[in-house]
Design goal:
The structure is a homodimer.
Chain A (H helix, E strand, L loop, with lengths): L1 H8 L17 E3 L9 E6 L6 H10 L7 H9 L3 E9 L2 E12 L4 E9 L8 H15 L4 E6 L4 H6 L2 E3 L5 E5 L3
Parallel strand pairs in A: 5-6
Antiparallel strand pairs in A: 1-2, 2-3, 3-4, 4-5
Pfam families (chains A, B): Acetyltransf_1
GO molecular function, one term (chains A, B): N-acetyltransferase activity
Keywords (chains A, B): Acyltransferase, Transferase
């Protein structure tokens, strides 16, 4: 967690660079201490994401491939799409992704959270989720939910997510 | 469960009536055996619902009141809105409601399921949920989810919903 703290307490004033303006969406820039002086980690809500690049990211964590036509539709109809990028000079690499469905009023559900394994265990997944939560909260969404695989329950717990509060159970439908 | 079977195995051919055409949405008509010969139970996906009538229904099950402005927004931005009506001659009464958020591609989450307590324990909630599931499935949504209060977990289980499949946990975010 030392890295995490360093990441966010370091100087974040140097926000405007030529790389950042390549994004159409709102961009939160973190200090470049993540890797080297020339490297920056950037979050974006721009949903104009290269689907092949996203598929490559999902391949890295072993997800089953999904039809890109449907992935495109899901991104279009998500309330929030968050991507995380490593920017090195003029190059940028997609290293994280998450999206949320919502009724735009009360509830949001976060889906498809993925971080490039080569960038895991540095607090970046946590940073991306905090960014996601902050975006949902600023849209006045009070109920943020998700369905967590067993191995990431503790990760989400540390972010303030609770399992089965007041006995509420997450349920999935399967045909009889 | 006897009533339920009767409801669905009885003659459902008499579909077109003047009451049904009052709905703009798609309507599934069940046989009038629910109460009397002149009574019919109708499902609709029309989202043009009187918000005061919906509030009255939610009052009946003791839900905390919510700003109608936000309820309106949530209905507008839901992927699917299902209402259940009792139709007696020219009168119709809202007796059930459910809605779902979705990415229009993979996932849907069902929220705000309510049935008028005076109409409960007759299989109508089950019928409304089956209608909801059918609508989501016909839209090619493969993953139907919900968050169930403890007292309705068995109700959803009987409809084919599973709690925590493969250890997946429903989680809710709360501020630190």
């Amino acid at each position: 967690m030392v890295f995490w703290k360093k990441l966010f307490t370091a100087n974040t004033e140097n926000v405007a660079t030529s790389e950042a303006t390549e994004f159409n969406g709102e961009v939160l820039k973190l200090n470049g201490s993540a890797t080297t002086a020339e490297t920056e980690i950037v979050f974006s809500t721009d949903r104009d994401i290269d689907l092949y690049e996203l598929e490559e990211l999902c391949d890295l964590v072993g997800w089953a491939r999904r039809p890109l036509r449907k992935v495109k539709k899901a991104i279009q109809h998500s309330f929030l799409v968050v991507s995380m990028w490593e920017i090195k000079g003029k190059r940028r690499r997609l290293i994280g992704f998450a999206r949320a469905t919502s009724d735009h009023a009360f509830n949001a559900t976060i889906w498809d959270v993925v971080v490039d394994p080569r960038y895991q265990n540095r607090g970046l997944g946590k940073a991306m989720m905090k960014y996601t939560i902050q975006k949902l909260r600023s849209a006045d969404i009070s109920n943020i939910t998700l369905f967590a695989d067993p191995q990431v329950v503790d990760f989400y717990r540390r972010l303030g997510f609770m399992v089965d509060p007041e006995g509420i159970k997450g349920m999935f439908w399967y045909p009889d």
